[in-house]
Design goal:
The complex is a heterodimer of chains A (359) and B (385). Chain A is an all-alpha fold and 359 residues long. Chain A has a single domain (27-150, 164-309, 319-342), classed as ABC transporter involved in vitamin B12 uptake, BtuC (Orthogonal Bundle). Chain A has helices at 2-9, 14-54, 62-84, 97-123, 128-150, 168-171, 177-184, 188-206, 208-218, 220-225, 230-256, 268-278, 283-305, 310-317, 321-339. In chain A, helix 2 crosses helix 11, helix 3 packs parallel to helix 5 and helix 12 packs parallel to helix 15 (321-339). The relative contact order of chain A is 0.19. With 385 residues, chain B is mainly alpha-helical. Chain B has helices at 2-6, 11-47, 56-69, 72-97, 105-121, 128-157, 161-181, 213-230, 232-242, 244-249, 254-281, 292-302, 307-331, 337-350, 352-359, and strands spanning 204-206, 210-211. A two-stranded antiparallel ribbon of chain B has the order 1-2. Chain B is built from 15 helices and 2 strands. In chain B, helix 12 packs parallel to helix 14 (337-350). Chain B has one domain (53-336): Orthogonal Bundle (ABC transporter involved in vitamin B12 uptake, BtuC). The chains are: A mainly alpha (359), B mainly alpha (385). At the A-B interface, helix 5, helix 12 and helix 15 of A face helix 2, helix 6, helix 7, helix 12 and helix 14 of B.
Chain lengths: 359, 385
């Protein structure tokens, strides 16, 4: 077998492909885990986008909502730890009282910011893209301002949620073991995301709330005539969606790491928007698209951690690392440009709704 | 502005017209400063646990103003910082006129700087009279290319420029890091930097830092105004922004205008990057960064997408950016406050319907917030058929 592999790997050009496939299959369990981890914040942002846009509100402010939630989560945890001590983490997930309260604070912050977006785009009927841009700039400024101020203060060290360890008996099940390990070998926010994707998908297409949401996003006037309160439905969806983006932001500062850096979302909110479009405004599709974007980053991480040997290794040495840094963004552009004609937004997306006057 | 001249007859009417033009931006600015003051007091007492000090915002704003206008050198610094803001702001403003929201000034700026350095590094032995225009053109071209791509994508596939330009920003960052570490790396430099721009360095005209780019930026204002309001192309750009369908029936090709506008916007932002590298830093390392991209959006909105308004808005922001570091040093207020104030200005501008009611302003022709009504278009739905 080895000599056979050796022979086909030696074939020019085609051999490199075989080497890549072999390397890829070996690295798959590790790579898929990394990919799911990287996909969590992108997917949560995309879900936020789906919930907003299905009801007809464009929200490009999710980057800012995530950043605010990331800051709030970390800061709240530090403050609460300072007041009541770190507490003992539970064996599973490493839950502590400050950590759980911090998550709540992050969610509330995200929902408040969403409320501002809802007010601007639904009540003021301002341009929704500008309203979102304002939220992004404000979040960047405010979190950066506070972060610089706090650099002079000594804050207690914060902890973060820890990942669930899947027993090796389960993760070694052939064919599906690595999948279970990748999807559920995560912290609470990561697992919650997997659950939200499924529940949201079912609710959006199989519940009264989902039907109303879609009606309001497609044809608000018709929805209004059958007695659906368009304004209230939109407010509810936008504010609720803030919690999803906030989970994505909190994931960055209290689950994936245990700290905050200025601008730490690094465009994940915008990649999430692209994932929403690629996923055709459905939760499951958004999850798949988020995985696609995360996979390109996961491949580059895997290559840098355990570089392939042989000819493949020498070939990859010639590819600059910056190429892999730019890859998710390149994929976003290509997919967006290629798919846009076949991916259709809710009809009333981005259009403010005005009730017909009674006269 | 042309309407303003047509309305000249009565001075009082003219004054009232001018007031209706600037009232909302002015009030937005002062309201933003007020909220900023509240944030300063709250953050100082709640976060830093300092004693309550109601004069702290005044100290901060005074340090800010001092840093921006306090001396001849600080005025020159303000002008130097205004230069890229003005150029990129004009680009974003022209985009708004065509109904395009170009968030990509950031990437276009960076690529413009890269283009300028790339040309300059290869023209070390040429006389400045040739090297300077060549390097500026290199920057303008690189920026235009970075704007052309999202424009082309929007025109051919309908991919929304808001997402694609942001992606282009990140790609620009990665490209810049690669170019500085790779093709343009000066031998033996560690950390990696590009060679000095040498002969292409812009001459210093005033003070110790006031370079030629200042003149270039202020010269671009009347040119942009003429292009927008006195040429056929400018009319077509504005027509597409006002109503793409009507423009098409009138024989304008909206796709062509979108590509053209994005390229012009990219060119101006690229020129801003070129002026920054040729006039100030002269060398580029991997941490070359800027805030011009996002500032220029605010500048364009605050200036109502009108070149003359943009000039004043750019001066205001140049002053704020110039005064922010002295504010951090002398009053201990982080520079990011300026970003927050910027967002607040936009917030009050966008809620201008609410403000207008408070100020009892009637709708006046030309006074509506250009750019605010035409930008949001569905991502998926092709508006150009």
């Amino acid at each position: 077998m080895d000599s056979f592999l050796h022979t086909i790997n030696g074939i020019p050009v085609l051999g490199i492909v075989f080497q890549f496939v072999e390397y890829f299959l070996n690295a798959l369990p590790f790579m898929s885990r990394v990919a799911v981890e990287l996909a969590v914040p992108i997917c949560l942002a995309a879900l936020c986008g789906v919930m907003c846009e299905r009801s007809g509100v464009v929200n490009i402010g999710l980057e800012g909502i995530m950043l605010t939630a990331a800051f709030t989560g970390w800061f709240a945890e530090a403050v609460i730890t300072g007041i009541m001590g770190p507490g003992t983490p539970t064996p599973v997930f490493g839950l502590t009282v400050p950590l759980v309260l911090a998550l709540l604070a992050a969610i509330i912050a995200g929902m408040l910011l969403s409320l501002l977006h809802a007010w601007l785009s639904i009540s003021v009927r301002a341009d929704q893209i500008i309203a979102g841009a304002i939220i992004n700039i404000a979040a960047f400024g405010m979190t950066g301002y506070l972060n610089t101020l706090l650099a002079t203060v000594s804050l207690p060290v914060t902890s973060n949620f820890t990942a669930l360890t899947i027993p090796s008996a389960v993760s070694n099940i052939p064919l599906v073991g690595w999948l279970i390990d990748a999807l559920f070998g995560q912290g609470p926010i990561g697992i919650l995301m997997v659950i939200i994707v499924v529940v949201f998908q079912i609710f959006l297409f199989r519940s009264r709330w989902g039907l109303r949401t879609r009606a309001v996003g497609e044809h608000p006037r018709a929805a209004e005539t059958v007695g659906i309160d368009v304004i209230r439905t939109r407010y509810r969806n936008v504010v609720l969606s803030g919690a999803l983006a906030a989970l994505g932001g909190a994931y960055l500062s209290i689950e994936a790491t245990n700290g905050f850096q200025a601008g730490m979302t690094q465009g994940r909110g915008f990649i999430g928007l692209a994932a929403m479009i690629v996923g055709r405004w459905t939760p499951l599709g958004a999850f798949g698209a988020a995985l696609l974007f995360a996979a390109s980053q996961a491949i580059s991480q895997t290559i840098s951690i355990s570089p392939p040997t042989g000819e493949l290794g020498t070939l990859l040495d010639h590819v600059p690392t910056q190429f892999f840094d730019a890859l998710p963004y390149l994929i976003t552009i290509v997919v967006l440009a290629g798919l846009i004609g076949r991916s259709i937004a809710p009809a009333a997306d981005g259009r403010p709704y005005q009730r017909e006057s009674a006269s | 502005m042309s309407q303003a001249i047509a309305r000249l007859p009565r001075p009082r009417a003219l004054l009232r017209y001018l007031w209706s033009l600037i009232a909302v931006p002015l009030v937005s600015f002062f309201l933003a400063l007020l909220v900023g003051a509240i944030v300063i007091i709250l953050s100082s007492t709640l976060v830093l646990k300092n004693p309550f000090d109601p004069t702290l915002p005044l100290t901060a704003y005074q340090a800010l103003a001092q840093g921006a206008f306090g001396s001849f050198n600080s005025v020159v610094t303000t002008l130097v910082i205004t230069t890229p803001l003005l150029l990129a702001g004009l680009g974003v403003g022209i985009g708004f006129r065509a109904g395009l929201f170009n968030i990509g000034a950031q990437g276009q700026f960076l690529m413009g700087a890269v283009g300028a350095v790339a040309v300059a590094a290869n023209m070390q032995s040429s006389p400045p009279a040739i090297a300077i225009p060549a390097a500026l053109a290199g920057g303008a071209l690189a920026g235009a290319a970075w704007g052309f791509v999202p424009g082309l994508l929007k025109a051919t596939s309908g991919a929304h420029e808001v997402v694609t330009t942001i992606m282009m920003n990140y790609i620009a960052l990665a490209s810049l890091a690669w170019i500085v570490k790779g093709p343009l790396k000066e031998m033996g430099s560690n950390p990696p930097t590009t060679p000095d721009v040498g002969a292409a360095a812009l001459p210093i005209l005033i003070g110790s830092t006031g370079h030629l780019g200042i003149l270039l930026a202020f010269a671009a204002v009347p040119i942009a105004w003429f292009l927008l309001f006195r040429t056929t192309r400018g009319f077509e750009i504005r027509a597409v922004g006002a109503n793409p369908d009507a423009a098409r029936y009138a024989g304008v090709n909206p796709r062509l205008m979108i590509v053209l506008t994005m390229s012009i916007a990219g060119m101006l932002a690229g020129l801003a990057g070129a002026c920054t590298i040729l006039g100030i830093s002269h060398r580029m390392n991997t941490t070359f960064q800027t805030k011009v991209g996002f500032d220029s959006i605010t500048v364009a909105l605050l200036g109502r997408s009108n070149p003359i308004g943009i000039m004043f808005a750019a001066l205001l922001f140049g002053a704020m950016r110039a005064g922010a570091p002295p504010m951090q040093i002398n009053a201990g207020i982080p520079v990011e406050l300026v970003d927050f104030i910027q967002a607040l200005i936009l917030l009050f501008l966008i809620a201008n319907a609410v403000l207008r009611r408070l100020l009892r302003l009637r709708g006046v022709a030309g006074a509506e917030q250009t750019g605010f009504q035409t930008i949001t278009r569905s991502y998926g739905r092709e508006t150009l058929t």
